[in-house]
Design a protein that fits this description.
The complex is a heterodimer of chains A (about 300) and B (about 280). Chain A has about 300 residues and is mostly helical. Chain A has a single domain, classed as MetI-like fold, CATH 1.10.3720.10. Chain A has twelve helices and two strands. Chain A has a two-stranded antiparallel sheet. In chain A, a hairpin with a 5-residue loop joins β1 and β2. Chain B is built from twelve helices and two strands; from the N terminus they run ααααααββαααααα. A two-stranded antiparallel sheet of chain B has the order 1-2. Classes of the chains: A mainly alpha (about 300), B mainly alpha (about 280). At the A-B interface, α1, α3, α4, α5 and α6 of A face α1, α4, α5, α6 and α7 of B. Chain A: This is Sugar ABC transporter permease. Chain A: InterPro entries: MetI-like, MetI-like_sf. Chain A: Keywords: Cell membrane, Membrane, Transmembrane, Transmembrane helix, Transport. Chain A: It comes from Leeia aquatica. Chain A: Belongs to the binding-protein-dependent transport system permease family.
């Protein structure tokens, strides 16, 4: 029985197989299907017609909207991930302090996490409404603006607003990771540093930041993957509009596949995204310092 | 009486001041939800707009419940999230145990496989997932519009995360405890159930909560695979109310988002300390 066979090399595989099969099943066929669609002429109902080689890719790359979207996706990812880290480090440092009401403060900071991205996007879409939205109402009451700003109807405003919402929803997860990192730092090294006369800023630069580095790396990698693939915020707030000025690759892909009836091209976009993510992962693995395999 | 800690008082003041801008932005959407949800409908679109309603109209919630079929959507969300979480945990616990306890050939391969599945987000594969669902016969038609397709894909997409979290936690459970049980004549399998699993419960709970939240919040897959109103989840039902409509009943939409959000927020506020602990444990390794 398994009991006596536990030393055999088969046991770990038996334990792994259910998860392996399930993940393989859900990923392999769709992936195959996307590759297949990308090299065929596909009808709007998903019917494969003639093999057409790289025609879909050529069409996609020739589309100026696509190229703009690629650049915008880059800005989106950089903007949201960069902004999130910049906001999260000080918040995590504060929440790591011992102060009155820290539990409440932590709960407030974590709160955006509990709201689904879709709901967040819906609420902010209403809040940014031109005439009836509470953002304009509040800004006008405070005397910061004289008339309503057309946030989501203006290309120059809509995208930065969406980046802001993206940052807001990514902060809780990132702060959580940083808090974990900070709590793993032994406090006696700070005492030693203080005795040596290190200033607060020096302590931060020389001790906290280097010790936090692995956690920042991890937060950046995970956030890049999440943000790059993030669909609901932009889809719900502007659907890529006005006039395609807020599309990122995922929303563009969805529109091609399910709105405009061009699944072949959408499949090609999927594969381009996959290639970008692969490059990013390889880059990340290369950048990792050589460490012994963790448990 | 306790002495008032002066330095701590000052520190608290500074901390709160520094957090205030972010806290205000976090609370802003909750205020928007609440004050819009209780406005009489005719006051939602008056110009100049105001924060406060002339009177609180709680009836909005009851109207919304009917109009949105909130109960049905809530039930669908719960079914999908609970079942996909259970499946994900059920297949991830043994895999994580294997990773944490056995050296074996193919370990590196399996880890890389997990990394790839983590990268292939549902939205990247959504076209293929849709085709897969149309191919599998189920009932009178196929898996499009059935919950099963959504549940299985959510479970699959959460495996990588669940295995990582669980295995790094499992690695911190001392091996000696199990070995001591073997010496007392407890078989390996029995010792897992009697000694190991009880110790692993907190990790499983934290992982399950994260998986549940992921499933509860997922949008792209359910938006694509589920077509009929009676099978839709809360996120999709509520999105339907605003997407592609000329006029939106914002007081109902906000009542719905508030009702869909508050229970989760309260639960989250309560569980928050465990989540921080759990995620950082999972993150350390």
């Amino acid at each position: 029985m398994t009991q006596t066979a536990s030393g055999r090399p088969l046991t770990p595989w038996l334990l792994i197989i259910p998860s392996f099969m399930l993940a393989l099943f859900i990923i392999s066929y769709p992936l195959f299907n996307i590759v297949n669609q990308s090299v065929h002429d596909v009808s709007r109902f998903g019917l494969l017609r003639d093999f057409n080689g790289l025609e879909n890719f050529r069409t996609v790359f020739a589309d100026p909207v696509f190229m703009e979207t690629v650049w915008r996706t880059l800005w989106w990812t950089l903007g949201v991930v960069g902004g999130t880290v910049l906001v999260s480090v000080p918040i995590a440092l504060i929440l790591h302090q011992d102060f009155y009401g820290r539990g409440i403060a932590r709960t407030i900071v974590m709160l955006p996490w509990s709201v689904s991205l879709t709901m967040t996007a819906i609420v902010w879409r209403w809040a940014f409404n031109d005439e009836y939205g509470m953002v304009n109402v509040t800004l006008q009451k405070l005397g910061l603006i004289s008339g309503p700003i057309h946030w989501l109807a203006t290309a120059d405003w809509a995208f930065p607003v969406e980046i802001g919402v993206g940052i807001l929803v990514s902060v809780p997860f990132t702060v959580t990771i940083f808090l974990g990192g900070l709590s793993s730092v032994p406090s006696d090294i700070y005492e030693a540093a203080r005795l040596d006369g290190a200033s607060r800023w020096q302590q931060f630069r020389r001790l906290t930041l280097p010790l936090l580095r692995p956690f920042i790396n991890m937060a950046v990698v995970l956030n890049v993957i999440y943000v790059f693939n993030s669909f609901p915020i932009i889809w719900v707030m502007t659907q890529g509009g006005p006039s395609n000025s807020t599309h990122i690759l995922v929303t563009y892909l969805y529109e091609l596949g399910f709105r405009l009836g061009r699944p072949g091209e959408a499949a090609a976009v999927s594969l381009v995204m996959l290639a970008i993510l692969m490059c990013f992962t390889v880059l990340y693995v290369r950048m990792q310092p050589k460490e012994s395999e963790g448990a | 009486m306790m002495q008032i800690d002066k330095p701590k008082l000052w520190r608290s003041l500074w901390c709160w001041l520094a957090l205030a801008p972010f806290a205000l932005i976090v609370l802003f959407p909750f205020a928007v939800m609440f004050f819009t949800a209780v406005k009489p409908p005719e006051e939602v679109f008056t110009y100049p707009a105001r924060w406060l309603p002339s009177s609180f109209r709680w009836q909005n919630f009851a109207d919304m419940w009917e109009a949105v079929q909130f109960g049905t959507a809530l039930k669908n969300s719960l079914i999908i999230s609970v079942l996909s979480t259970l499946i994900a945990i059920a297949v991830s616990v043994p895999a994580a145990y294997a990773l944490a306890r056995f050296p074996f050939r193919g370990k590196g391969f399996y880890r890389q496989f997990l990394l790839v599945t983590q990268m292939l987000s549902p939205i990247l594969l959504v076209l293929g997932l849709f085709r897969l669902a149309t191919m599998i016969p189920y009932g009178d038609g196929n898996l499009v519009d059935s919950h099963i397709g959504v549940i299985v894909s959510y479970a699959a997409f959460n495996i990588a995360f669940a295995v990582w979290m669980l295995s790094s936690y499992f690695a911190t459970i001392p091996r000696d405890l199990e070995e001591a049980a073997w010496l007392e004549g407890c078989g390996r399998v029995r010792s897992v159930f009697k000694v190991f699993l009880p110790l692993a419960v907190p990790a499983m709970v934290v992982t399950a909560i994260f998986t549940f939240i992921n499933a509860w919040n997922e949008f792209a897959v359910v938006y694509t695979l589920i077509r009929s109103d009676e099978s839709k989840t809360l996120t999709v039902r509520i999105t339907d109310l605003v997407a592609g409509r000329y006029s939106v009943e914002w007081h109902q939409v906000m009542a719905a988002t508030l009702l869909a959000t508050l229970p989760v927020s309260v639960l989250f506020a309560w569980l928050q300390r465990f989540l921080v602990k759990g995620l950082s444990l999972g993150a350390v390794k």
